Structures
1.
Amino acid sequence: MKSAYSRYSAFKFTATLTAALFFWPVYSVADSSNPFILTYQGRSIDSAPYSFAFPYRLEHATIEHQKIYFSRHVEGEGKHLFVTDWDPLKPISLDSQSATKVTNTDLNSINFWRRYLNTRLGGLVAEADEDKAERINLWLFADGADKPRRLTDVDYIYEFTQSKDHSAIYYTARYGSSDAAKGCLEELTIQNNGSTQTRQLICDDNPAMPARINWWTKLRADSERVVFPALKDGDRNKQELYTYDLSDGSVSLMFEGHGKSWVDVWHGWGDEAQALFSADRDLYRYDFKADEAVLLRRFDRALSGFRPAGSGEAPNIMVTTETPFETKLEVFAVAPDRLTLLSTTTLSEDVWLADGYDGQVMVGKFSPETYAAFDMLTVVHDGSFTSQNAIKGLAEINDQLSQCNVERVQVTHEDTSSQSPGTQTLDVFIYRPRDLPPVEDQKFIVTAYYGGKNEFSSYHHLFCALGLTKVSPAVRGDWRYGTEFANSNDREKADAPIRDTLAVARYLMEQFDIPNSRQIGTTGYSHGGWAAVRAVSYPGPERLDLGFAIAGGGFYDLPAIVDPTKNGETNIHGWFDKEFGTADQQELLRVLSPSQNLDEITAPIFLYHADRDTRVSPNQSYSFAERLAEAGKTHELMIIPDQGHSIRGPEIWAEIRQRLLDFVSQTP
């Protein structure tokens, strides 16, 4: 039966944070209408500060044009975008009262993805939609405008870039509801008066285009050409880069990255003669005149970020490489045939290179203990740099939001399966409550996929405050260790991260003297939703009797995903084919489906899904819940109305978390 989540319940209010430090809705201690209070086993915490106390989310910073765009939740109005002028050499306090509001659109009501400032249009151009249905187009969020303006009319935009003078935008688009549909490279030209016009440059139904235009990596444009990604035969294991000649419309293969997990051209460096691009751990310089790619350096870990760190067309570059536990920040001089290392700095935080221009690089730093810190680096020619605080007022907020003691451990186990045998070492974050319940009352929630993130998680810290331990491992399939590790869970090896998760659960039992394996459960979203349920339905010899699973936006009947009569089950068939298999691999898909392994399920399962999800249809959760009910399995299904695959809104998330907390509290 379809059901919607209930309205906000009344909970006892127990303040655990100092309200005077924050900017969030004020409720009296006796006010039972506070929808943000979370309760579990006699403990309570107000989750509002985790949405409203942190004063903003940095959306886009441009050193060249001296503007910062940020969003923040406004009580009673939703989440809004603001812009403020900025001197990059002076620390700034972001204040929505003194900033300009950019449209009256509630960002929680739309998808709002990659964005660039376009000076000709006078605002931020973003990949967005109208109703979270993932019909993604380019929209202009102009400074001070009442509403955003749609610039394109396609079914989906994968990526876009713009010319240096902002007179043209180039984007890869799809015409159809899934990535099996026609893809095109298109151009949006912008006149001085702000008028625009679009045209198709090349589509993949043209015999001159030998690969499918349906991939998410970056584009690059100069005055002569556009570099764009495509997939040979639509296969995500066959990534390629192509050039489109703006003078004659010809298309040429630039690089064949078959077998690579991520091939990416670098926007912001080079000119009409040369460009940089990466293929997993390898960095190349491409000479357009010679039509030649030269390997400059092979890094020891996956490349995660790049910014120019100097002036001119071919300046020094700042590069980040990372593992879950640290980030390496390096500055290089670029020669035609090599990189020369100028400086290296290793940080325990995850580092985001927010922007770089004329020797200035803005960096964001994140960790499990730190919500955010932003610094401005001034890089000199020899690669050394000085650092100063870029945004003020964050340290106090970081201290108040932290609720966990975080441990970083490595878990080693032996995978004896025939599909992916060998010794595996996993990087794991363990978030422990500062006030621990007795060991027999402790529960551990393990992220089954997309874990191991070196960043602050409100979810984890809220649950620590309630006495729950969150565990976040980087399992096989994670991109940060290079191609082999990233592809180590494809198709027949799809269960590799499940065996990793079960190994982590066994480690927890031994390390923390957990008397009962049912004190441990799993959680995950999307691919992770499948993984969370697969871990409690896994039929292999590594099986462990886990206590519960929390799964959001997941898929549980894999043959239905590739069934042509059920074309609406997903709009990302290419991704699914790579990860799990194609329509001609029915037996594999059946084996990997939790709905086909009901006899193995003894753990209660909490499912939640958005009713407008087009990436993974809610039919997957509806049908799985029906199968669980028919089999007499304990479960709960929560359907979130008016939301897509990206569920947004602090009130909604407070309700989801309380529902799943109630569910977990009832598990033995």
Note: The longest helix spans residues 496-511.
2.
Amino acid sequence: MKTAILILAAGKSSRMGRPKQLLPIKHKTLLNSAIDTALASNCSDVICVIGAYRYKIKASIPSNSVKLLENSNFEHGLSTSIIEGVNYLEKTNCEGLLIMLADQPKISTSHLNQLLSSFENHPSQISATAYPNSLGVPAVFPKRFFEGLKQLKGDKGAKDFLNSRYHQIVQIKHSQLFDIDTIQDYEDYLKSL
């Protein structure tokens, strides 16, 4: 089953004060770490949506490693990056879309493969990450949900979409929800390595 991974990396990093996509993590950037995790998975394609700092970010990504989409509406929130990716994928023969964030360094290739495998076994259902207190991304959305994803607004991303479809979701557990939004988050993550 052809499933693409969409990495969302278009944000301004306003709480960080600098482009978090370019933060160094073990000799690579936070975004390149996410890209490597995605490329090592069993997906068919990896697509990255960029927006803010696009020229710096583009220069940091090894050429031809992933398909880059530029979101010129990134200032209108995370939803615009999802819509950009869905619009692109609707023109392909992709049957599913795994959405992941560039700022979740504790997400492993193994976890992505669990989600992809779940989608293979339950192709009509969403396969989402179940954290201790919530559902979230990474999550795989079958093509039948693409139109609904295109209705997202603002900076909410897919979380509300997932929670409103709780009965249509296969849950894949993950021990903790962690993303890097602030300098403190980044420093805490580096200490945990």
Note: The mean pLDDT is 94.
